[in-house]
Design a protein that fits this description.
Number of helices: 12
Shape: globular
Oligomer: single chain
Strand order of the largest sheet: 3-2-1-4-5-6-11
Helix content: 40-55%
Order of helices and strands: EHEHEHEHHEHEEHEEEHEEHHEHH
Radius of gyration: 20 Å
Distance between the termini: 41 Å
Low-confidence stretches: none
Mean pLDDT: 94
Structural class: alpha/beta
Number of strands: 13
Length: 335
């Protein structure tokens, strides 16, 4: 296609899968990451397979620094811009509400301004979230469902979501928001409950740990696979007009059910290893998220391909493989 796309937050789960998709379609991908004290190889693990690809360029940038985003848009003149960089952990947002808001709101605004001033023809994608529905349990939750955020993360994302609509209406920017329900994969961060469960099950299976501490097991979520969802992101920017869409599987399951599936795969008994720890409860819980993706299915032709059981199994199997690989390296350091 000979297009250029900027992806902020490229080293995260969604950024890495989206990079794979776009490069397969002939794009040049400019992926941004924020330098930190963490080891570079660990930070770029999700895109390590792309680092030698001539169509993948990794750039340092900070979405809270408007100058760095202006520089990127000016230098690369992108056809598409995917704003995936975020402080994306809901629980953490209660502890860091200010920085969460700076990243999740201002990162979006600075990108929109950079596009408006330097490349108004660039198409923009904003990663909105089902957490914006919050404690509104009227289900399934679709494009017309009332937002009711109950975390700093969701409040910042909702402000950014409305900002996208403002730039679309006021300046004619092709700016679309994807309201994505929970989507997981083996590339999911280890501080999210799904990866916490699959990694712990793998380690318990191998005798590397004995217990798993969790919070609210009754919370219900609509879980899909990240690879399916990034395909939806791309389809939004190929649509004839900019708009907002819900991406979801239309099926909901509880944390308890995810735990049961994974422990069944691992041959483990939940009662022998799982401890409910009140410290993992949030100040305000979102009880149920269940999405209605009809608009995306009808207008974009998008549909999820991986089901809940397949997702849980894939994540567990990959964590088991990784833990075995670590064990092998420890036992055979010269291999």
């Amino acid at each position: 296609m000979n297009k250029t796309a900027i992806i902020t937050g490229v080293t995260g789960q969604d950024g890495s899968y989206l990079s794979d998709l776009l490069i397969d379609k002939g794009y040049t991908v400019i992926g941004t990451y924020r330098r930190s004290v963490s080891d570079f190889s660990n930070k770029t693990q999700n895109v390590s397979h792309l680092l030698d690809n001539r169509n993948f360029i990794l750039e340092e940038a900070d979405v809270t620094d408007s100058a760095s985003l202006y520089r990127l848009v000016h230098e690369y003149q992108p056809d598409e811009y995917y704003n995936l960089a975020a402080q994306s952990h809901v629980g953490t947002s209660f502890k860091t509400p200010v920085s969460t808001t700076e990243i999740n709101l201002m990162g979006c605004l600075y990108a929109l301004e950079a596009i408006r001033l330097q490349k108004p023809a660039c198409k923009f994608y904003q990663a909105s979230t089902s957490e914006m529905f919050g404690d509104n349990t009227r289900c399934p939750q679709g494009i017309d469902t009332t937002f009711s955020p109950v975390s700093p993360y969701a409040c910042a994302k909702l402000a950014a979501h409305h900002m996208v609509g403002t730039y679309r209406k006021s300046y004619g920017i092709f700016a679309s928001s994807g309201i994505l329900f929970n989507h997981e994969s083996p590339r999911r961060g280890e501080n999210f409950v799904t990866r916490k469960i699959t990694k712990a099950a793998a380690r318990i299976n191998l005798g590397l740990q004995k217990e798993l501490r969790l919070g609210n097991l009754s919370a219900q979520r609509d879980w899909g696979h990240a690879a399916d969802f990034v395909r939806g992101m791309w389809m939004m920017l190929q649509h004839e007009k900019a708009d907002d869409f819900v991406l979801a599987t239309g099926r909901t399951n509880s944390v308890q059910k995810f735990l049961e599936y994974v422990f069944a795969f691992a041959g483990l008994e939940i009662k022998d290893h799982v401890i409910i720890d009140p410290k993992f409860y949030r100040p305000c819980e979102v009880p149920k998220l269940w999405g209605n993706p009809d608009k995306a299915i009808i207008e974009l032709g998008w549909s999820p391909e991986c089901d809940f059981e397949e997702l849980a199994f894939e994540m567990y199997e990959e964590d088991l493989r990784r833990e075995k690989e670590k064990l092998n390296k420890t036992d055979n350091p010269d291999v």
